[in-house]
Amino acid sequence: MKVAIMQPYFFPYVGYFQLIDAVDTFVFYDDVNFIKKGFINRNSILLDGRAYKFMIPCKKLSQNKMIKETYIDLSDSIIKKMLKTFKHAYHDAPFYNQTIEIIKRVFFSNCKSVSEIAILSVKSICDYLEIDKNWKISSLHHNASIGLEREARIIDITKKEFGDVYINMESGKELYDNKIFKHNNIRLNFLCPKLKNYKQSSEQFIPSLSIIDVLMFNKPKVVKEMLKAYRIDS
After folding, report:
1. What are the C-alpha distances in Å from 39 to residues 16, 53, 108, 115, 210?
2. What are the CA-CA distances from residue 3 to residues 62, 67, 161, 193 (Å)?
3. What number of other Cβ atoms are within 10 A of residue 65's Cβ?
4. What is the largest CA-CA distance in the chain?
5. Which of 14, 51, 88, 122 is least crowded, fewest Cβ atoms below 10 Å from its Cβ?
6. What is d(CA 216, CA 49) in angstroms, rounded to the nearest whole number?
7. Rounded-to-integer distance, Cα 44 and Cα 54, Å
8. Which InterPro entries match (predicted)?
């Protein structure tokens, strides 16, 4: 059983969904500290030929609060403004109508915390792409292990999910000791994304944007093929 554990990101880039594709169980790690200027509440889209950052405003941002304790400040006027930006950016995109409906459902979901809306954004995309996973949330399903150190808790959650393989993004190679995982009968692997170019509205390809950009320009079948474009290293 392959397990991944990751903070919930708001409409993340393709690599996040490749990690989901690679595992059987995906645990949203929402009871760890919020990271300012990360991807929990923000990402980028293509606007007028350049990467444009969009963000879900939050109340009293603090890195001393957990992700699940960070609440969003998403008024109707802010939603209207953001949807107007998406329309300006993608109104001519071939899959604008399908994608904007997903975005609207997430925005108008009445989520209270950034954790809730980020998780919903990920699961909504997976529903659209017909990707079915065993979803878990650390604060709901693994709150008993919250006092453990990072590596010990990752191992504990993986074991509780009957995992014998833990997969992390390649950027986390320096965070973990392979010997400790081996001692616990867990194989530690790392996912290396292979991000493919696709036709955008700009002449020069802009990489690593939100999954929103990918969905605007590609059929679901093509997107699912992109999610398979990765390498697993040990």
Report:
1. 11, 10, 20, 12, 10
2. 29, 21, 8, 17
3. 15
4. 54
5. 88
6. 15
7. 6
8. WbqC
User: Among 132, 149, 139, 117, which Cα is nearest to 29's?
Assistant: 139
**Per-residue pLDDT tens listing for the chain (234 residues):** 999 999 999 999 999 999 999 999 999 999 999 988 889 999 999 999 999 999 999 998 788 899 999 999 999 999 999 999 999 999 999 999 999 999 999 999 999 999 999 999 999 999 999 999 999 999 999 999 998 999 999 999 999 999 999 999 998 888 899 999 999 999 999 999 999 999 999 889 999 999 999 999 999 999 999 999 999 998
Q: Which residues contact 151 (CB under 8 A, 6 or more apart)?
A: 175, 176, 177, 180
**Where is 231: in which H helix or E strand?**
strand 230-233
Of all helices (H) and strands (E), which one includes residue 22?
Answer: helix 14-22
| Tokens encoding 163 | 């995992």
Classify the phi-psi angles of 200: left when phi > 0, otherwise alpha if psi is within -120 to 50, otherwise beta.
beta
11, 124 in Cβ contact below 8 A? no
Structure tokens at 34: 């919020």
Residue type, 26: F
| Residue 190 falls in which region: left (phi positive, over 0), alpha (psi -120 to 50) or beta | beta
Amino acid in position 93: A
Angle at which helix 96-107 crosses helix 76-90, to 10 degrees, equals: 170
Coil, strand, or helix at residue 217? helix
**Burial grade of 182 (CB within 10 A; 0-12, 13-18, 19 or more):** exposed
